[in-house]
Input
Amino acid sequence: MRAPVRKSLIAGAVVALTFATAGPALAANPAGTASAGSADFAKAGQPVQVEPLAVCSVNPGAPGTVTGSDPAVSTTGFKIGATSSTCTTEVVDPDEFLTRTKSVAKGTGFELSAFTALRGPRLKISEWTITCEADDKGTQAGWELRGMSGWTGLPQQIPAGYVHEVKASDGTVLATAKFTDTVFPVPNDGSLSMTLLRITFEPASGHTGTITLGTAACSPTP
Output
């Protein structure tokens, strides 16, 4: 029997600066938004849908903080604890009309036990945080994962866009988990969006759909 993998903290950051590149156009990102997670999956035709949790968006025209929160969510094989978010606009130079924004979402108590009946792992994350910060020079996204267990084979340092295969004890791939998926618009306007973790069920799991933990996006301020 494999021993569970336990990681106390994994963290990282991505930076985008304001400059333009040639290429096909993609939609720019919002001024600032964050959510702790969502879910849309099904087993044997029985759907589980969790709308985006703890959503907030900055108000770029007015200083202050917008908050979001949701209570715990629990269904067969899937749990998320309490979630929260804050989206803040701060004036840093009123004479020059310069502002900066910070959008943060936090979650607790994630547990996915849907794979255990197939001799797969019980995936747990005790806490996660995703942040998107912006000023007139560009943006940066940061993230943390704490108290992870069941993630056999996950590297100590997770590179951007890393894909982890969730496997049963016989090696069957039950799901893929993509970490820190970051999108930059083209041409690059300095904005970015990041999804901290997206779990996609594979056919062998008997499920279809996805679970997402932590999304944030922001754009350079005026």
